[in-house]
Structure prediction request, 817 residues.
Amino acid sequence: MLKCDLQAHSCHSDRPTQWVLRKLGVPESYTKPADLYDILKRKGFDFVTITDHNRLEGCLEIAGRPGVFLSETVTTYFPEDGCKIHILVWNLTEQDHRDIQGVRENIYELAPFLRGRGLAHGVAHPLLNINNRLAPEHVEKLVLLFRVFETANASRDPLAQQVLRLCLDSLTPEKIQQLADRHKIEPAHAEPWRKSFFGSSDDYGGLYLGDAWTEAEGGPDIADWLKRVENGGAVAGGCAGDVQRLANSIYRVVFAYARDRLGSTAPRGMQLLNKVAQRFLEGKNPTDFSFGELVGHVTEAVRTGKAFDFINPNETSLNREVVKYFLDPAIKKELDVIIREEKIPERRTFRMASKIANDLFYRLFAQVVSRINRGEVLDSLQPATGMLPLAASVAPYIFSYHNLHSQRPLLRSTARAFLGKTPPLLRNTKRAWFTDTLDDVNGVARTIRTMSEAAFRQGEDLTVIACRTNLNLSGIKIKNFAPVGEFELPEYKLQKLTFPPVLDIIDYIEREGFTECIISTPGPVGLTALAASKLLGLRTTGIYHTDFPQYVRFLTEDDFMETLMWKFMQWFYVQFDTVYVNSEFYRQCWIDRGLEPRKLAILPRGLDTELFHHRRRQKDYWKKRGAKGRVMLYVGRISKEKELRFLADVFRELLRRGAAVDLAVVGEGPYREEMQALAPKAIFTGTLTGEELGAAYASADLFVFPSTTDTFGNVVIEAMSSALPAFVSDVGGPKELVSAETGGRVLPAGDMDAWVAAIEEFLKNPVPAGVLESAARRIHEDRNWDRAFREFWANGLKEEEMMNSEVRIKNSESGKS
Prediction:
């Protein structure tokens, strides 16, 4: 068996596909043709060729060496819409190359030209959406126009290669006839349902040449060997693309570009950069400087004037932060741990890059937050600008994730077009649920935990992903990332958010093979999940748990800040495939703000009917805690936005009028001290959980919840399930839970007289226990977490089933015609 890497690139591939790289003048490859030849020969390859884009110069440089033949990557287009395709042409002459340039713009002219000349050729990476115009119809036309397809590529998406093989293996004479009739294209070869396959490294950086290849029997004549490849006598082997390997290739090109551009202006600094870069790519510790290297760096800093960045201690400099970081012995030890743990060099490089970027980004971010909290908003821009080059430093990884995985929607639609259904490897069966809050006592955390417990019981593959310090939860499948750092929200003390390890989370999602990201919160973890889903082409589901614009209005008392929050929320949620809301009120709010109605759904809800039940009532429960009269209960976070100042005013007015009533407050929060000052006679229990919480509900007489910012109100359902009448505001989601049949009341938000009068009326004429217990029974029957989860999980498959049905109908109609 003779072996060849049928697609590899040299420094003559000097026009990158990416617009940014073209504008910067960065070539696609720095690999010298002679080096490429030597590497492949050392690896035992019998033939060597170079497939630069529309050029032969690389091949011509080594044309006289044994086993070399001329080839190129021909860029062609579907003229009807400009969809770009790469066709590899092998063993051509210089005259063939010149003639190809006259027909290559039109794929319908190029294909017969290559056949007429007898030139061996094949379709490179057929499912790569080069200029974002590729659709299943183009792939169908390629099947009619060409025989040879690349199914093993060491630089491209492994999933795309699997899908391509499934599609090509599904071809039959009947399917080919359907495609020919549909596109009005006659198949170009005999038995067009039989395809031939080849493999290549598609290498640009010179690091992974020959990692995928084509093998076929034959003698030393390249024309005979290629004929066997065209006729299906070849085997495509090797590995598929990998994010870390692709990123390393990009780093290799970027470092070479920096060496060429900066080597003359800062030679000593460039030498140091070269050494750091080489260590980095080899997975070695880039902070392990020798004394001579450090002296050289200092000398260079003085010569170029960079040393003055360190003179002013009050001025933030990314350069200074970087040097301080790399000279920190603790950092060196932490990087050494990574090197010991990771056996694969590319993985070591990735983990070091991720840690370095996370640490430095957080240091600058902390400076920004600190200056904003001190009122130095303009000064905060200075450290903020340092974040841009840090983001650029890990851009090769970001690009690699997007390049390898963003085409999943195209893969699904193409697979459906050829197979009539979504294949198992593309089905939405493994989902990740992201949250910035999981160990807090709030409705968001309770919903996620109970849904996840139901998933665990039903055997569905759902993983909760969080980023919290010392998170200890059982009964659910969870992945918790250690935070890079923590920070408090301005104006919202005690509510801490974590700064997540962004690249590590994206890496975990990719390596675990998740098919959907469910995102509960628009905080740092939620933003990371949204970015990951876009990079990896995953389905996204958002849940609007909390009315954050209202929160901002309460906390800042600034309408402009509320408007800014709405703008952010609109930007965030408009990007999801599905957005769950907790009530019809908020569904209509989002429709009014421009979200498509088809994207919006009401989140199915359940309830722990064993915990929240009137049989948990204890007659002396509240008396033991100081109550003397009837108990009206509030459960929830003690925060300003819950309208707790208003509740305290209502309680004081009731006492002024002589009402025999006590206010019990269950929960914790930043407003507790102020509320205790406003309502000193109220009973504050702190946070209660489990049976203690169930007894607190069932032992009270009335539940009061004046909040206008809650989108649902878990506590309202828990109270009614415990046979309590609930009094809620007429703004927000809770109003949709309460009706006359439940014994509760929906009252005008902020209307003191209305609330006081309603509570006084209740104290005089309580709702009969039978009415409340009957309402509780109906809630128990309607709200089951297992049923709610099944409905929620099934919604993630509805679009898939609908698309499969449409394809079956289309194929059926096509067959009849």
